[in-house]
Each structure stands twice: as C-alpha cells, then as structure tokens.
Amino acid sequence: MRDESGLRIVSAEYALKHRILPLREEGGTVYVAVADNRNDALLQELQFMFNKPVVAESWTAEKLLPAISRRYRLGDGAASGESPARFEALENHSPGEENPAALLDDHSVVQTVNQVISEAIRLRASDIHVESYEEIFRIRFRIDGKLQAYDHPPIQRKPALISRLKIMAGMDIAEKRRPQDGRIRMVSERRRVDIRVSTLPTDFGEKVVLRILDPSALNLSLENLGMEEETLERFRSVLGLPYGMLLATGPTGSGKTTTLYAGLQHLNQPERNIITIEDPVEYNLPGINQTAVRPELGLDFAAILRTVLRQDPNVIMIGEIRDRETAAIAVRAALTGHLVLSTLHTNDAISTIARLIDMGIEPFLLASSLKLALAQRLVRRICSRCKQEAQIDWEKFRSYGLPATLRNKCFYEGAGCEDCQHTGYRGREALVARLPVDERIAAEILRGGSAGELRRLAAKSGYRELKEIALQKALAGRTSLDEAVYETFTG
After folding, report:
1. For residue 152, which phi and psi values (nearest 5 degrees)?
2. Burial call 220-254: b when 16+ CB within 10 Å, e when fewer
3. How far apart are CA 251 and CA 377, in angstroms?
4. 26: part of which helix (H) or strand (E)?
5. Which residues lie below 8 Å from residue 374, measured CB to CB, with a gap of 6+?
6. Is 308 exposed, middle or buried (0-12, 13-18, 19+ CB in 10 A)?
C-alpha cells in the first residue's frame, strides 16, 4: 500500500537546492526523483533523513523542476530556480556554550534543525514538539490545532539536535534537570519569525516545544476574524466607546488574544495611548506600548496595571484576568474613563458574569463596567480543493442530542489532498458568541439573577450559543459536522 506520510520531511528549499523530489513510499522503501542518480553522498543523506532505504529515479531537469513547483505550490519563479524563503537563526549565546560537544559542530545538525523549522513555517504550524522516549525520538507539528507526525530521527541524533535548539534559544546546554525558556529569531530575505522555546525534563531526556510566532500569518483585520456580521458590528461599537470593559472568554488556544489584537489594531491611532500587559508579549504591534509580566520581580498583572493607570492610557489590554485584585483594578479602570480589553477562562459568555462575581466584583460595579462578553472557539475549515459531500453516521452523534431536522441536511468534509497534508482541513476560523450587556442584562445582574434567567433575557436580544453557531457553520459547508460537534458539544 502506498504511504506518503513521511514524504513531507523534505522541504521545498532542500528539494530545489538538490534537485530531488520524494515520489512515494512502498514496502518500507522511499522512491525519489533526482536529477543526478550518481550522487552517492546525496543518496546517503536522503537515506539518513528518511531512516529507510532510498531508490533514485533519474528525471530530466525539464521534468523535475515543474514537478517540484507543483508539489510545493511555489509558482513560476520557483520552477525557474528561484529559491523559497531560506530561514536561518540569529545566534544567541548560552552560559553552557564555552565547551559544546564536538557533535554540535556537525553541519548536518545545523542544517537539519533549520530545515525542520523552515518546514514547520511553510506548513503553517503553530508549534513544534521534539519528544524523547526510551527507544523513540520524534518530531510533531501542530497544524490547525491538531498534532501531526513529522519525523522520527535516529535516537542517536537526539543529544545533538536538542543541544542545537538550546544553543539557538540562548539556553544552558549543560542544564538538563530544570525547565528552561528561551527565544529564537529566524530570518530570511523575506521576513522574520520569532520562536518561543520551552524545555521540560522527562524520564528519557528533555522535551522541547517551539511556539512559532510568525507576524505574516497574523491577519489583524476585524473582517478576517470570521465573526458573523451582527457580532462584528457590536464588537466595533464597543471598541468605539470611551470607557468600559470588553472580555473575550474561552479555553487556551481559542483565538482570544488574536481577537483582542485585532481590536487594538482597529483602535491604533495617533490620538490614543494604548498599553498592553501580557504574559508574555507574543507579537509586537507598532504604535502600541507592550509590557510583559515579570513574577520573579514582583511584577504580576495587578502590579503592572497599577503603574499603567499612571501612564495616562486611553486603552488598556490585560492578557488575562486571573485573580480578584486584577479584576478589581480592571473594573475600576473601566469605570474611570478607560477602555479595558481582557480575557477570562470560562465556558461561555454568560458564565463570565458569574465568574467575576465569584472573584469578588460587586454586581453594581460589574453591571456598570462590562459592555460586551465574547465566547470563542476555533474550528478547522474544510479544504476547498478536496471538499466533498459527507456521508454522516448519525449513530455516532446520537448521544449529543442534535436536532432531528439535521438528518435531512447536507454536510461536507475534506477527502484529503496535498494542499491540506491529507487531513481534509486547511486553516481555521472563529466561532464567536456575543453577550452585549444592555439595560435588561445590567438590571438582572444588579438583581442577582441566575445564569438561566440571564440566558433567557440574552436570547431575546439575539444571543446564540456556540453550539448553534457551530452547526450553522457546518450547514454552510465551512466546517465538518464532526469538527462542529467536537469543539462545542464536548466541553
């Protein structure tokens, strides 16, 4: 049976440079098209990369270059020999770098690490996981929220590859017993990408996770958030207020910070003083003052927020409201002439009110300060290239209580193709449920109304649950029924 799962380890840059193209894997052997099948050194290197036997098929350059261009979707420039972005690290210097092991000087280690990171960026990965087990060393990419296997380098290469990553991130390569954090800056002739690096000691060596922060992948236009028109208009209207509080809620990785960044970009005008407090600062936004918490110095969200209020701000973004003190200062700021944007961890927009009251915020202060709560999830979009009608196994969804009327509807899925790395999905978009705090909601907060009563009142103002919004996305063919149910019915 044909298996193409391991063929993605060859980057577009490497394929163009060496004039090679992985074709298929059959019976544990990788077949590769090459311009020169007599290059024994190249064939040995490919065998090392795949960790499997390699058979070379000789192709002419006239046939090979267009095939490489099609496989990697590089366009006409690449077919004529123009190289894709070549990412290289701006080196840091770690305390343990004075006597690095000799194996770190091996050029193939540097090349392999750069290739892994470049390929992750090309595939739009948000994270790279480098994982150590007793007899396995593996690399996985998180693409559109899901981890996908990328490579299983020989376990003998583990010390060299991990040490190389630690040197690039400015870490101490001699320290293997404690977690470390660092940053890598990758540059090409086209753009710069920052990478946040974290190490964690495990039973069989260190696990390294690299969070890729690619500014070119961050589209901060309000229109590109994927919100429904009415929700977008309400978001805009609250951003236009001189004071008040706007909260985005949802689990980690649901796009809350991106939504708030888009709001800040919308507000970013010379007449406004905008300050953010983050943990950590993920993307630099020109024209906006950004600062990071430093708990080791006693600078948590609350401490920095008190200082920020003396900096004459118009707009304040707080990365997360985690405790009573931060919540109290944020509410006070929203009541005294500042527009405050922040995030909170709750399951839905209605729960935001109960959560803040549990933190000790008086209902009369909350009713006056909170203007809008947004609940968010991200769902994967069906790949447009391989989209097809889905055959639904309704028995699988029986326990979720889906409306019976859905059985007569048409849903879609992705069959899997090269564009989507055979997952059926490409990209993600937000599901956003809005809760405007109008006069009726504010009065119910003052009265101490239950979540059920707040939900009933909100429904009269057009409030819809995330589940309903997700099903509408599936019916519209934007995402699959599986994805809609998984993200909103299983929480």
Report:
1. -125, 80
2. beeeebbbbeebbebbeebbeeebbbbbbbbeeeb
3. 8
4. strand 20-26
5. 231, 235, 246, 247, 248, 249, 259, 349, 432, 433, 434, 435
6. buried
How far apart CA 193 and CA 175 sit, in angstroms, is 26
Q: Are 348 and 465 in contact (CB under 8 A)?
A: yes
Cα separation of 243 and 224, whole Å? 25
Give the list of residues 6+ apart from residue 82 with CB closer than 8 angstroms, or none. Answer: none
**Amino acid letter, residue 235:** F
Q: What is the pLDDT of residues 161-189, one digit of tens each?
A: 999 999 999 999 999 999 999 999 888 75
Asked whether the beta carbons of 343 and 260 are under 8 A apart, the reply is yes
Where residue 56 falls (left for φ over 0; alpha for ψ -120 to 50; beta otherwise) is: beta
Q: Is 465 helix (H, G, I), strand (E, B) or coil?
A: coil
Placement of tokens 């958030």 in the chain: 225
Cα distance between residue 116 and residue 130, in whole Å: 10
- Segment 305-355, tens digit of pLDDT: 999 999 999 999 999 999 999 999 999 999 999 999 999 999 899 999 999
* DSSP-derived secondary structure letter, 294: B
